[in-house]
Amino acid sequence: MKKWINWLGIAALTALLSGCGYNDFQNKDESVAAAWSEVVNQYQRRADLIPNLVNTVKGYASHERETLEAVTRARASATSMQVTPEVLNDPAAFQRYQQAQGQLTQALSRLMVVAENYPQLKADASFRDLQSQLEGTENRITVARQRYIASVRDYNVLTRSFPTNLTAMLFSYKVKPNFAVENERSISNAPAVNFGK
Fold it and tell me: In the chain, which residue ranges form alpha helices assigned H by DSSP?
């Protein structure tokens, strides 16, 4: 009889654990981490393009020093942040990273507006190539952010839904931060890099 009670207890525990969502948390957490890695990868790609872009613009518009320095400072700020998986569990660090990337986007937009005033620069093949690469990267950033937002939404729904919210409390799974609404306008607009022919 005792043997049957033990087997029944093990079966009940197994059924309880299979419905607790622990494996779902692992799956969704990995999805969020992968989506975040892609966001960071695309931001890094953009940061890698900036020195060449700044140098090309500097060759034609060297007296636009303030704008060029603003882009360089924004890039330095955005790339100096330590981007670890822990950022996803720290809303304040996530917000700082998001703000730095938003400032870089704004600085790039100002640089592109300045470049509009230099027809020789717009005709430069290197500049047009960098412009095209930057535009493609901004599109990739948008797609990567959308995937991240969807992954976080799925994770956060699991964290807040019953009965998996009990598992979340038990294992200290917290809701993950997402892109803030107040910054959504600045992060959703790619810099103006499409110049007239």
Answer: 2-18, 22-60, 65-80, 91-115, 119-123, 125-160, 164-171, 184-188
List per-block mean pLDDT (blocks of 10 residues) for the chain, which spans 197 residues: 74 60 91 94 94 89 85 92 82 90 92 87 88 93 94 95 88 87 51 47
Question: What class, spelled out in words, does domain 2-188 have in CATH?
Answer: mainly alpha
Report residue 109 as tokens: 């937009």
> How many C-beta atoms surround the C-beta of residue 84 within 10 A?
11
Stretch (H or E) spanning 174: none
What are the sequence ranges of the domains in the chain? 2-188
Find, among 176, 170, 172, the residue nearest to 156 by Cα.
176
Separation between Cα atoms, residue 16 and residue 22, nearest integer Å: 11
Contacts of 140 (CB under 8 A, 6+ apart): 42, 45
